[in-house]
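Retro notes, structure queue

What went well: the backlog is down to a handful. What didn't: a couple of records were mislabeled last round, so from now on we paste the full input next to the output in the thread. Example, using Pyridoxal phosphate homeostasis protein from Streptomonospora wellingtoniae:
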Amino acid sequence: MSARDAVGAGEADPGRGSRRRERIRANLAELRERVDAACAAAGRSPDDVTIIAVTKTFPASDVRILAELGVADVGENRDQEAAPKAAECADLGLSWHFVGQLQTNKARSVARYAHMVHSLDRPRLAAALGARARTEGREVGCLVQIDLDPASEAGALGPRGGADPRDALAVADAVAAEEGLALAGVMAVAPRGGDPEEAFARLNAVAAEVRDRYPRAKAVSAGMSADLEAAVARGATHLRVGTALLDDRGPNVG
Ligand SMILES: *Cc1c(COP(=O)(O)O)cnc(C)c1O
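Corresponding output:
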């Protein structure tokens, strides 16, 4: 059977893995250039900005490629997908970031593999995650997720979660009170359709407030593929990048 027949018969395409690897390598190089340029424009050091590869909807084989290319931080937004992927990649020594909305009944699972939860947005979740982290004998870093969408104030709560900026300190207090959790900073997603730099400036103000009370909570997780320059300009320390690294997830996902 020729190679072409083998592919036609649905067998593995032997070139696929290396093509994927080259694609991700090129994307990563381009992304690092973007981050370097954004840092230069903001007068910041690229060493102060961590790239988190958001691997949701992509297979564990992509996580493995990213690890080989020197990426140390990966992000996921659904526990059902993240838990098996983290287990499959346990040998890679990566830091796992949970960036999606988190139900308290998933706290037990997430506490097993997550190094950082970016979506801590209510005291009850801090209590649940803290209890599970202690049971697992682990310390889980937490970012207080802030809802930056002004529409939420009018009661039209978006699907993305996050605490009202006025409640940020109360949520931070709840995290800080939990043994097993380490308050690490704040996180936000820029509202759709708005000016991301304006939104990230508001996040920066909340970050300063939290840092005032908790000086070690220095992380600011902001910026995705489309708006990372604005995030770097406004003090982001962690960028959560999916499509710019791994290409489109297709419609209806994410
Ligand atoms: C998917 C996701 C990202 C990555 O978004 P891209 O536009 O693919 O870079 C970042 N943050 C969160 C919370 C996400 O769910």
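Agreed that this is the format going forward. Reviewer comment attached to the example: Residues 54, 56, 77, 99-100, 189, 224-226, 240-244, 254 surround pyridoxal-5'-phosphate (CB under 6 Å).
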